[in-house]
Amino acid sequence: MSAPSTPTASPPAGSGGLLLFSAVGALVAFFCAGLSQDPIFRLQAETFALAGVIAAFFLTAGLSGGTLRDEPDRYSDNVIKAGVIATMFWAAAGLLVGVIIAAQLSWPRIFYFPEAGWLNFGRLRPLHTSAVVFAFGGNALIATSFWVVQRTCKARLAGGIAPWFVFWGYQLFIVLAATGYLMGATQSREYAEPEWYTDLWLTVVWVTYLLVFLGTIWKRKEPHIYVANWFYLAFIVTIALLHLVNNAGLPVGLLNHKSYGVFSGVQDALVQWWYGHNAVGFFLTAGFLAMMYYYVPKRVERPVYSYRLSIVHFWSLIFIYIWAGPHHLHYTALPQWAQTLGMTFSIMLWMPSWGGMINGLMTLSGAWDKLRTDPVVRMMVVSIAFYGMATFEGPVMSIRAVNALSHYTDWTIGHVHSGALGWVGFISFGAVYCMVPWLWKKPAMYSNRLIEWHFWIATTGILLYIAAMWVSGIMEGLMWREYTPQGFLAYSFIETVSAKHIENVIRTVGGLMYLTGALIMIVNIWKTIASPSVAPADATAAPAPAIA
User: Comparing 423 with 537, which gets the higher pLDDT?
Assistant: First the structure.
């Protein structure tokens, strides 16, 4: 082990440039806030300026006090610790908003606040979506990717201060997006609601993230690039491409929050769902498959069942997924050949998706007993099972005849949440449970029993949620297509809404149980961090074992 760094060690590369960037950015944002006549843009510019001032203050204090130091012989674990904390904070916030809007649908007379427009369902719903997908999921992906790429490459994160810029820049993006939704600033594009200035900022952060990840792989000491890094890289690159094309727009003015997309009509719809479905495919699938391919073998102490299958899984998934978006546009103005193309590729996705599921489950060969003794392994296995179920249900729902019944109903909501809560949520929780003792040098999590409680409460909540939405959605679709002998619709829209009341209540209870599980996990993590540490291990970059 190398000798610890001395206080005279040089600061991380790029610290001075980031200080200058923060100060200039804050100054420009203050000018924009002062010159703008748009109250929404003004508040967003003030938020950006405040973030720049805070960043400049801490960078100045760190550089002048010598506390901001580079340690080239050690892994960059502090930024991962911050990522773990941010992941759980945004998980609690996003799930809480989800429970609130579920309660609004269940008891609209109680949870409707006409005097507080920012609490309307129409503003809280995109806040919930973005908080769980981009805030919780995004932070989990950034934190785990930073851990995995360092360990499998035996190299410290590249870029000096850049990983910290990625982390804090991403938190600023989340805050700008969330406050914008509450004020009514939105492009009204599914999974892409932030306005043009927030999109530009995310572009800067995301390109930096890509360069940090690529730079770490470039300077690796391990000749082989482990499969998890391929999945992370595909997620980062594809999301960058999707973001740039889908969010191409022209602002009303440089000091105005509103913008209009460059596409229109059916072309706009096609681009939107090319983006929307591949945001699911690469943000919510490829990145979390990378977690599966690292943390499941690591936790069960077994190699990946078939490394060859993992490579086939990777290349077939990324080539097929990118074509599946048009299945969201059945029975629209989109040409039918394009709809059929999307449906065909969606059905083809069964093969790589289930290949990955089988690979993940079979990695437990010889270690199935851990399902009884280790609730973290149980959580990961259940997450893989939900991945298999969601990737079976999705292709079924893409078939035109099935889509005629399922589209716009709660069936779609149930499908999305079986993947989001079961697959994305559980594999993320499992990865965090693995990393917390590793990062903070603890022998284990504070309480195995609390993990058990988390698992069973959250699993029950998921099952209540998706079962209620399946029943509600199919009932809803059947009521919408029911006609009287005279050819009129048999049910009015409000009758279909009233018929779903019990299912909406069950959904609210299920979401509340899932939130409760996440809060139990936060308590467990806090207690673990506060507990006594063990002797540091795996601290230096060179001798750290890579799973490859």
Answer: 423
